[in-house]
């Protein structure tokens, strides 16, 4: 990947983009409240580029998500929202017959999509479901997870498919970081001894649906997680932004593997319309971004010049990633990730 390489000093991440796709939790909002500068920045972007939204959160319908975003001040229709339940139900349809009974572990968003696809919904393994589909909801508890385990025990994937909307380990909420759907899926996996098929990020189906729905040629995706958002965008061949308002920060970025590195790093969404600094790599491997320079000297990552804090992080990432060295083999100054 040509990390941070720009055509001119005045180019912004939005230049040449015909579709801006934004994750929700940790990018647009945390809990019910908007993240600072997110709404204003997305509204500004919408003046020149189509904006859509992608979410792994399966607890709400696309209409409910659109309503929430509209309440925050964004102009959003349900068709602007691509959800992991939508991707999961499409995957479900390729594994079981139309009209089959499906055990749903999740909230209204997942139930709504299963029903819209023509399947019958059950909440009990005793109804002999053709498949199990599982997504996040704050109301999911032990009894629901137990029903999934009962339905899957002793059944192979061919006999009774199990589809998870996503496997995010955590979810950012107003009070902090909470367990996500990945922890609930793991509980069922432990009891049933099986792994699910996964529809949402980092799998490509949800990205492909978004690109096809909006007929995009040059999309740009914004996320806050490397292991789902950025990995998924890279797998789908889409340029990506990691915004530092959600789950992952400097420590995760400098340690990111080659498959999970973003095209751009932004402090917040105001950076979408701001000139993105060029990354200059010297012959000795030293990397300069703005007034910050970082180099690899043996096993040491050295700060040669410290300018803007964000440019320092960008320079450090580029220097470490370009080195091809594993992060555990390098001595990294605490200043770069504290």
Word description of this protein:
InterPro entries: GNAT-like (IPR041065), HAD-like_sf (IPR036412), HAD-SF_hydro_IIA (IPR006357), HAD_sf (IPR023214). Keywords: Hydrolase. This is HAD-IIA family hydrolase. The chain has 338 residues and is of the alpha/beta class. It folds into three domains: 110 residues, Rossmann fold (3-Layer(aba) Sandwich), CATH 3.40.50.1000; 113 residues, HAD superfamily/HAD-like (Rossmann fold); 58 residues, no CATH class. Helix content is 30%, strand content 22%. Strands 5-4-1-13-14-15 form a six-stranded parallel beta sheet. Strand 10 and strand 11 form a beta hairpin. The two termini are 26 Å apart.
Structural class: alpha/beta
Shape call: globular
Strand percentage lies at 15-25%
Give the rounded overall mean pLDDT: 94
Rg (C-alpha, Å): 21 Å
Cα distance, first to last residue?
A: 26 Å
Percent in helix? 25-40%
InterPro entries: GNAT-like (IPR041065), HAD-like_sf (IPR036412), HAD-SF_hydro_IIA (IPR006357), HAD_sf (IPR023214)
GO molecular function, one term: phosphatase activity
Protein name: HAD-IIA family hydrolase
GO cellular component, one term: cytoplasm
Any descriptors?
single chain, 338 residues, alpha/beta, Rossmann fold, 3 domains, six-stranded parallel β-sheet, five-stranded parallel β-sheet
């Amino acid at each position: 990947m040509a990390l941070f390489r720009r055509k001119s000093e005045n180019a912004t991440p939005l230049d040449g983009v015909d579709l801006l796709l934004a994750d929700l939790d940790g990018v647009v909002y945390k809990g019910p409240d908007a993240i600072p500068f997110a709404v204003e920045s997305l509204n500004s972007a919408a003046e020149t580029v189509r904006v859509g939204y992608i979410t792994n959160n399966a607890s709400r319908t696309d209409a409910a998500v659109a309503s929430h975003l509209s309440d925050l001040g964004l102009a959003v229709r349900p068709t602007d929202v691509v959800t992991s339940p939508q991707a999961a139900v499409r995957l479900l349809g390729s594994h079981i017959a139309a009209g089959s009974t499906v055990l749903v572990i999740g909230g209204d968003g997942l139930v709504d999509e299963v029903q819209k696809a023509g399947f019958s919904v059950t909440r009990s393994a005793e109804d002999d479901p053709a498949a199990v589909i599982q997504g996040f909801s704050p109301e999911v508890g032990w009894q629901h997870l137990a029903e999934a385990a009962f339905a899957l025990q002793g059944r192979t994937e061919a006999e009774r498919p199990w589809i998870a909307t996503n496997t995010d380990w955590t979810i950012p909420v107003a009070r902090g970081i909470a367990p996500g759907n990945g922890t609930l899926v793991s509980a069922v996996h432990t009891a049933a001894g099986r792994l699910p098929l996964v529809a949402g990020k980092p799998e490509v189906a949800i990205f492909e649906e978004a690109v096809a729905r909006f007929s995009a040629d040059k999309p740009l995706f914004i996320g806050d997680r490397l292991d789902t958002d950025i990995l998924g965008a890279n797998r789908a061949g889409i340029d990506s932004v990691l915004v530092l308002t959600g789950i992952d920060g400097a420590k995760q970025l400098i340690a990111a593997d080659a498959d999970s590195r973003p095209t751009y790093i932004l402090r917040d969404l105001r950076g979408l319309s701001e000139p993105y600094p060029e990354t200059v790599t010297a012959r000795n491997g030293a990397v300069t971004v703005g007034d910050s320079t970082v180099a690899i000297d043996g096993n040491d990552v050295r700060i040669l010049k410290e300018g803007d804090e964000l440019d320092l992080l960008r320079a450090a990432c580029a220097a470490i990633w370009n080195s091809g060295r594993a992060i555990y083999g390098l001595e990294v100054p605490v200043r770069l990730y504290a």
